[in-house]
Specification:
- The structure is a homodimer of 245-residue chains.
- Chain A has helices at 27-39, 72-82, 138-145, 196-208, 216-223, and strands at 3-10, 46-47, 56-65, 88-96, 108-117, 130-132, 150-153, 168-171, 173-179, 182-189, 238-244.
- The radius of gyration of chain A is 19 Å and the shape is globular.
- Chain A folds into 2 domains: 3-96, Alpha-Beta Plaits (2-Layer Sandwich); 108-244, Alpha-Beta Plaits.
- Chain A is 22% helix and 29% strand.
- Chain A has 5 helices and 11 strands, in the order βαββαβββαββββααβ.
- In chain A, the strands form 2 sheets. In chain A, strands 1, 2, 3, 4, 5, 6, 9, 10 and 11 form a 9-stranded mixed β-sheet that branches. In chain A, strands 7-8 form a two-stranded antiparallel sheet.
- The two termini of chain A are 21 Å apart.
- With 245 residues, chain A is of the alpha+beta class.
- In chain A, strand 9 (173-179) and strand 10 (182-189) form a beta hairpin.
- The A-B interface holds A 9-11, 56, 58, 76, 80, 84, 87-91, 118-124, 126, 128 and B 9-11, 56, 58, 76, 80, 84, 87-91, 118-124, 126, 128.
- Chains A, B: Belongs to the tRNA pseudouridine synthase TruA family.
- Chains A, B: One of its GO terms (biological process) is tRNA pseudouridine synthesis.
- Chains A, B: Pfam families: PseudoU_synth_1.
- Chains A, B: Homodimer.
- Chains A, B: The active site is at residue 52.
Chain lengths: 245, 245
């Protein structure tokens, strides 16, 4: 029974998130229906991680099992044919060992968060970025972000609804860069808590606009209290980048 | 009678191009109507250049005259309020001397053309790039492109419908770069012929995929014949970048 690993790109702006739910338009449902339409097999697709409604992905990884073995190019082209009704595309596919698991075998996940920092409303980046008018100091944001690198209790940056057993996570990298009006946050960790990236970005934006000082990030982390941190950044600016195995 | 210079961004994917025509949804018409709604003055907006249907712009420049003098921030915010029905936004505005002219005083114009070079259909870059499946060699494309730098008769890259008196143009820069699947063309010249950027890109793609050799670009240029060159690249991948004064 071959196991297929697929890497997909999606535009989350009109979707309810990765996970199948009562409402239609989840990435998981679109994938499972496309796999059924192609193979006539009912499968569960296991993702490397859930993304919230309106979050995008450049290279999200998932896996599923089929009874039949198909050539890889057939899997890619057939799924993309049935996925043309959704804003999802399969970039790569491969047959992997039975012990591969998109979620449990992922060693690291990385995200990008995009802010457009300018006066005027967004056009080309609409639904693809967080529009922030007040000037942001990316150097101060990086200074604050550096307190978060390493293994910490991230309770201050964890959504109420987070189902993880432990609030301990290891943030391997957080890098903030600016290209004119585009301010980009790159984060990498073995795994993240629910809303962790968006809560970190929301807090760092408070550092960038001067509401907080870089040193305050240390205190916020140590408070282990969601109320101590800044707001949750909007979903539209968040991109799942890759999972490493 | 103050003259206003404005810099705008637009998503051309659902527009008929810069110039006002019988069909609605031109950039010029949207701007002129927004200016009327704001000032109750009927004006003609003069652009630094026309763009075709579905072409985008990051910083297109135009000008218009009003009887009244308004604070710049009022002009920007009022126009953006009325432009919210369109995929156009005013980024900057300023009051300029009477001898300023968006078209006739522009010393240089620059464009970007974006190709996504991969097997799978586009999602995040849909309507924003040319999707090309066959592998492109960006070094060979640059080698071919270098024959075009300087002052030449660009008849081979000129649309039939081009209204310019002379086919002579001076291409100051053409630079091709790759970032994974993204292949980007940057072109700068005092002015361009109609479809010149798209015809150059369409020809260079033939060099990139091996249908032509880099040296062939020299022969195509010297042929001064549109039939000698490659196809016109689709509008969706083209971005007007800036005009210099």
């Amino acid at each position: 029974m071959p196991r297929y690993k697929i890497t997909i790109e999606y535009d989350g702006s009109q979707m309810v998130g990765w996970q199948r739910q009562k409402e239609p338009n989840s990435v998981q449902q679109y994938l499972e229906e496309a796999i059924y339409n192609f193979s006539k097999e009912n499968v569960v697709v296991h993702g490397c991680g859930r993304t919230d409604a309106r979050v995008h992905a450049y290279a999200h990884v998932s896996h599923f099992d089929l009874d039949q073995t198909y050539p890889i190019i057939t899997v890619i082209n057939a799924l993309n044919y049935y996925l043309r009704i959704a804003k999802i595309v399969v970039l790569e596919a491969e047959i992997v060992d039975d012990d591969f698991h998109a979620r449990f075998k992922a060693k690291a996940r990385s995200y990008q968060y995009l802010v457009i920092n300018r006066h005027s409303p967004l056009i080309l980046e609409k639904n693809r970025a967080w529009h922030i008018i007040s000037p942001l100091d990316e150097h101060k944001m990086q200074e604050g972000a550096n307190f978060l690198i390493g293994k910490h209790d991230f309770s201050s940056f964890r959504a109420k609804s987070c189902q993880a057993k432990s609030p301990l996570r290891t943030l391997e990298q957080i890098k903030i860069s600016r290209d004119n009006e585009k301010v980009s946050f790159f984060l990498k960790a073995p795994s993240f808590l629910h809303h962790m990236v968006r809560n970190i970005v929301g807090t760092l934006v408070y550092v960038g606009n001067g509401k907080l000082q870089p040193d305050d990030v240390k205190d916020i982390l140590e408070a282990k209290n969601r109320a101590a941190a800044g707001p949750t950044a909007p979903a539209a600016g968040l991109y799942f980048l890759t999972a490493d195995y």
